[in-house]
Amino acid sequence: MKTLSKELFVETLQIIKAGYDRRCRFEKAMTEFNDAYFICNIGDEWLNQLVSMLEQLMDDENNPKYGTTISWWLWDNVDKKIWWEVDGQKFERDLTTPEALYDYLVEKAG
Fold first, then answer.
1. How many domains does the chain have?
2. Which of 42, 64, 80, 89 gets the most CB atoms within 10 Å of its CB?
3. Which domain holds residue 90?
4. In 1-110, which ranges are E strands?
5. What is the pTM of this model?
6. Is residue 1 part of a domain?
């Protein structure tokens, strides 16, 4: 498995999230100045490519129903917890922090 260091992974996720949050704030501010909904897609290509690189480096496989874990973590506005069941036993994993997400991906890749 090709992995990044935890520090670089966490830093990269924080940069992606901060850039996305800035863009959302910009879109919201621009919408207040006109009567239409403003969408800014400047930088989408590099952002999507960076996320794809993280997913590939961390062996984050695409689930046809749910997508990848990294994309889910970045873009879905949900509790960052996962649940699964094995032989009737239920498990829960808290992935709230980038560090917890990294640990989960490394363990999952084996």
1. 1
2. 80
3. 6-109
4. 81-86, 89-94
5. 0.78
6. no
